Every structure is written in structure tokens, then in C-alpha cells.
Amino acid sequence: xxxxLADQLALTLRDHQSAGSWCVAFSGxxxxxxLLHLLVGFCRKHGGPELRAIHIHHGLxxxxxxxxxxxxxxxxxxxxxxxxxxxxxxxxxxxxQAARDARYVEFARQLKxxxxxxxxxxxxxQSETLLLRLLRGSGVAGLQGMPxxxxxxxxxxxxxxxxxxxxxxxxxxxxxxxxxxEDPSNSSDTYDRNLLRNRIMPGLRQRWPALNTVLARTAAxxxxxxxxxxxLAAIDxxxxxxxxxxxxxxxxALSLDVIDQLSIARQTNLLRYWLRDKTAMPNTAxxxxxxxxxxxxxxAQPLWQLxxxxxxxxxxxxxxxxxxxxxxxxxxxxxxxxxGEYLLPDNGLLQIAGLNTAPLRIGYRQGGEQMELPGRGRRxxxxxxxxxxxxxxxxxxxxxxxxxxxxxxxxxxxxxxxxEYMKLKLGWTFSS
Length: 432
Prior knowledge:
By secondary structure, the chain is of the alpha+beta class. It has 13 helices and 20 strands.
């Protein structure tokens, strides 16, 4: 068994030996103790990368105060550098999830560029994860289970034991005389995972001994299905992606004319794919906001608020609006501007050239602004922006140039100038 585990691990690590270094998430429990011992043996035999360990100390129970010292002892015996990091876990409804989130935030912060973080989750953990997600109503993406690897911070996360059962790890630990921490909270059924592990999984395995293998096969099917869904979403995204208006607006936009031709399922699939790197996905109930956005009247300015931004409709375009774009920029405080560059608080960089008159000032819309245009007389700025189909969410961010109370230029719209300011150049650059 010992050689078998080492051989399995060696196959998994074959593609990760080029990492600058390896870091083990070391709790001191059975799983991470076996992983650390296996990695030390691998490095001694194959000359792997530099190896170190991190212990995250949550301090959520009295017994945990002794764990850092145990981890130091184990790492000392194996000659592995250990870093102990204390984290604060907020008091929320799900302490288990909050502790997990705190760990991953710290792991991402501590990983060096090109470093691989090794987590000791195994085959039984994967089975529990799939069943928990099924009970919580997860879709195809959730039922893929935990990935073997993924990017994390400046490095990579790897779960090299996902194909190995807990029974195999325990047999290895006993054979090598390893000592580990038994977390007293693991015997409590307060947490969903403990209840599943302690009460439900034993009965399922008694009836279906190949449970882990079957669930691993299900996860593989779901990964394949998710891959197909993503291929379809990528095709739909290429069809729906369109230029923002005005064309200098650095926001991503989709064509509602294309989206309207898709089924509701394909619309949802497309949006999940498009938004996956932009915001956390909403729960099933919150997706009603998408239909409300689609069904709003032609003259409405509907907005679907998500965690890290919003989807907003303007005309026949759908825009992704990051949170920063939903805030009104503060008064720039620029009352005496000439030719030059000006950094606008929370609103990019303004470049002014060709200004040969007295110093002017920069401001934003307050309402009621008018401009004198050659051949058209005085016109309301609101109407001028509507004529040019400037989205409502952009109008309050447009830098305006004033001579006293007279509006003489609008950033991004060079055609809006009184006759005496036609040679003025007003450039505005910003990121989304």
C-alpha cells in the first residue's frame, strides 16, 4: 500500500515538478499529515521543488490552541519549514464556510509566483462534496465536484489525493507510525458535512461499496457536460458580443437582438459564462431579475443588480456595469484648468489641448445645462445626449468644460462645441 500510494502520487505530480516551489496546507490532521510525509519522500527520491508548509489557525475551539505546536513538531521531524498564520473568522450563520473562505483568502495571499499549493482532500471528501451540492440544488457546474487543480493567487492549487480513499491514507499513516490531530468537532453532527460523513455515508457505502467510484464517474460526466455547455456559450458569446456605444466606451456589451433569439436556458448559460470572471453567480431565485430586465418597457432603464456589478440595458444593448460605474464621481475640484492632463477622482484622466482662452473649470452634470451650437442656437445638454444615444449611466460621468457658467465642451463628443471652441481638444481615458 505504501509503495502504491507513492506511485500514484508520483504520477499526479509529474506535470507539476516544474513549479518554483510546493506549499502544503498543513492542518495536522490525518490527510495533510500523510500528504506531507508522501511529498517529503517524493522530494528525497526524485529531487522535487523546494517544499514548505502553512498552518492556518482559526482559533475557533479551545483544543485548537495546541495544534500549531504539534504542526511545528511534525515539520521539524521532516525538516520542512512551517509558517503558522492566525486568521479571524467573522461570526456569521455558516462558521464552516466563513472559516473556509478565510483559509483560501490567506492561501492566495501567501502563495509565491509559480508556487503550487497542495491540499489533502481525498476521494471520500469528493464524494461528500458531490452529495452536499446535490442536496443544495447545485447545477452541472457544482456537480463537477472539487477540481484537481486551478489557479490561486500568484500560483496554482493542486489536490493530488483526490483519487485516493481515506482508508488508504489511514493504512499508510499506521504503517509509517505517523501521529496526527483528531479534531473533536469532527464527531459533532452540527455541521452538514459531519452529519453526512458520520451518519449517512457509512450506510450508503454498506449498500453500495463502490460509492466513491460511482460518484467520481458522475463528476467526470458532469465535467464533460459542463465543457459542452461552455463550448455552446462561447459560440453564443461570439455571436452576441457587440461594440459599446459610444465606440470609445470601455464596457463590454451584448446584442439583445441576438440574445432574444436564444432559449431561456441558452440565455442563462451565456450569461453565466460571460459573468463568471466578473461576479459571483446569483442563486436560482435571483435570476428572476434577468427576466424583469428583458421584459421592461422600451423606454425604461432597467438594471439587474449582482454582487460585483450590474447588468443594465440601453437600447438594444446589454452592458456589464462594474460597481465603480454605479457610483457618482466626486466633484473634481478643478476650477482653474488650462492645457494639460488632469486626474479625475474615480473617473479617469482628462487631457486638454488647444485652450487659448482664460482658465476654465471642469465639472459634471447637475441638470439644466445648455450649450450654444453653431446653426442650432441654445440646446439642452440632456436632449443633445439623448440624440447621440448616450447611455443614462454614462451621462453623469461625462467631464464637462465650463467658461464661467457657459458649457463649452463635453468629453468624448467633439461635435458639441460653441464656434469659438472648435479647435479645443478634450480627451478622456479611463478603465472599466
